[in-house]
Amino acid sequence: MASGLVLYGYWRSSAAYRVRIALNLKGLSYETRPVHLVRGGGEQHAPDYRALNPQGMVPCLLDGDRVITQSLAIMEYLDEMHPELETALLPVDARGRAQVRALVMMVTSDIHPLGNLRVLQQLESQFGADEAQRAEWSRHWIALGFQAIEAMLVDNAATGRYCHGETPSMADACLVPQVYNALRWKLPLDDYPTVWRIYQACNELEAFRQAAPEVQPDAPAAV
Amino acid sequence: MASGLVLYGYWRSSAAYRVRIALNLKGLSYETRPVHLVRGGGEQHAPDYRALNPQGMVPCLLDGDRVITQSLAIMEYLDEMHPELETALLPVDARGRAQVRALVMMVTSDIHPLGNLRVLQQLESQFGADEAQRAEWSRHWIALGFQAIEAMLVDNAATGRYCHGETPSMADACLVPQVYNALRWKLPLDDYPTVWRIYQACNELEAFRQAAPEVQPDAPAAV
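Predict the joint structure of the above. Result:
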């Protein structure tokens, strides 16, 4: 049985970015194996990658001979395998855990899937959506989602320097890549001051900075 | 502090359907409070509901004075609050838990969000998508997702009568509403024999039958 953690990802993939943050927050070293999502029609569709992950999506984590797919399943797995309190990605109380997981889903189910590359490609092929229309579509869903997240965070006594209290959690690991995405789409963020404040606080931490798309080995030299 | 579980949902909401299954599997009784997603522009947008859930979506669970939103967060919460092994919604081993959560996300992130009512409405308003085009769009994402889920299930020694082993889990609670949806969209299911077999096995259980959209108090008399 092989040992060590291997992450199949792509520098710009929001879901892989989440997992990089989680691995860094937990202080786990890992090997990066880039999967280029665009080149040659997408390396994620290649038979050898499909054999590993039939869904043909990133990220995918190898832990020895275990194959774990889906960013949220990977984060929960890492937290269960490495339950040390000081690097916990979830709070200890059930109510806090539910709050963090709700924030996670507000990103991973209600925003991110709608702006994914494959969805934008489908908008183009099925409805002839041009670049401006695809941008409008993406901004629409991010804005809706951020409105709700802002309301959740502002209203909640548990909100601290980070999404939940004074240590970063899974919610922050999901929120930061989504804000990064919003900036790419040039969505004005003035209406989401708490989201923006937390984004900045997270990016002061090495765990987040070293997970950023631009510093990944497969990122192009100048972005 | 009030006691008892209250579920805000809508008979046809896939996400609420998941939670009803989970509550039934855990043997928890609850009060249903219907939120009509279409009538009057959608009761989920009304100020009193927004005060409870700023996102304006269903489901939303009240546990005494706790408000829990997002179907997956609710299911995890129920499993943590009621950890009895015989009604566990997740397996005990980390690998199995990761597998179940990955299947969950394949539905909750990669299929369901793309066929949501609000997304179909946006396709109509932004691209003038007619009913046939919206149906094509919905079937496209369900088919892609079911291909991947079928491959995951067929390939896995842990697959049993249900998605994971011989007892239903969170994965089944997510898969069944998605198959229900696929049937509504008239997606042929011949290519997903394992998905179909598990759907039928689940629907032999009272927990699933009593969660079905048609038997909810807010369902129209004849569907």
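The longest strand of chain A covers residues 5-9.
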